[in-house]
Amino acid sequence: MTRTPTSRTPAGAAAQDDVDVLIIGAGISGIGMGSHLRAHRPGTSFAILEARDEVGGTWSLFQYPGIRSDSDMPTFGFGFRPWTHQKSIADGHLILDYLRQTVAENDLTGHIRLGHRVIGADFSTATGRWTVTAQQSGGRETVRFTARFLFVGTGPYDHDAGFTPEFPGIADYAGHVVHPQHWPHELDHTGKRVVVIGSGATAVTLIPSMARTAAHVTMLQRSPSYVFSMPAKDAIADALRTLLGHRRAHEVIRRKNVFVTRGLFKACRRAPKLTRKLLIAGVRRQLPRHFDVDTHFTPHYAPWDQRLCVVPNGDLFKAISSGRASVVTDHIERFTETGIRLKSGQELTADVVVTATGLTMAVFGKIRLSIDKQQVHVPDTTAYKAMMLSGVPNFVFALGYTNLSWTLKVDLVCEHFCRLLDHMDTHGYTAVEPVLTDPTMDRLPYMDLTSGYVRRGIGTFPRRGTKGPWTVEMAYEKDIERLREEPVDDDALRFTRSPAPAAPARSRSRSEGA
What we know:
Structural class: alpha/beta
Number of strands: 26
Oligomer: single chain
């Protein structure tokens, strides 16, 4: 059954099934896009479809103990809304509150349709519009929306399921096995023996939090990751806010933090041996003298081949030093009734096993994209400026940085999209499509990280090129130039005017700016 979407529409808000921009996802990217449209194009109609029953994306989905940001909040927060809390590495509930406040302050509530999972989107070249099919939660009914543009802000991960390897004997285990992505609220680990399988960002977040009340927590890893300690509070940022106020200090703090983070990344790339020594030396300083850092905190890969794991105030190292947590580097042979037997012969007894074994990547929220009913095979497309797809008209997506705060890229994409809409309105264009005319250009995976979740899932993503606007830049300074400063129009874009009647022109709040 298909009907006009009216459910879950806030009181006083008019439900719209035909809009200028349809935004998929009410997490950071979707909230950011809606806020930019409200600020820079108040005459543009839009709706935000969210599969879950609340806003916040990752920060409402993940509820495991200790969840927090792994980037500094002045850059992980929006450029248009200063982060004012003292914590620079912030707890998940603080981030969720920040996102909810952003929704309220930018009057987005009436635009959001909760419980609408988008399952398909088809673009008509005849009308220049998308028809989007969504399934409402709690039933099999579908609703349809039409839109001039589709903006996908679903992130790179599958929100339905994380990644758990097939562990031999797991059915024999009598304790609790949980994945961080689906944390049961009723689970009480107080006084329990806990084993956390994994060594990535989730594991190093869980362990110090659980160690506060658990009998003991063991981090079981096949191989180590780089773990980098930084203060949870930024003293310089606090001083700047006191001197300048939140609004004026915001841009200074962001510039400082981008400079520091980019500097660390560049140092890792240009002098990997030196930065490797410095990172490992930092770990040694925070652990007891007898601790085997070579085995447990010395990775076999170069810094930033995978993301660095940030621990605020060295909380992981404090948990280990206190004896409430420990690290075992080994391979799992099988689960037993009481725990995990390792290939070395050691057995770890556990009441609770947490499989912090990674996430599953899902391109564009697993939406089936098509043009004139012909399915788009996403890996056959090439990313244009890391925000559009070759051969796909009126489609924009937001995927953040892997080596900087996610939101820095989202802000730039949203800015550029608003400029693109201005340009199209000024010239009377109804559709825009990136066109790749060089068949000889090498096409590479969208991300070049060696992390397991990337290797498993990156094949379903669009590819990146090696020159011009087809590269994917994980460099904020380069994206500033091409997304904020360069003209919108270039030779790789094909603009068209539809022969079909266009939607009424909508007012703009600023000059064309392209």
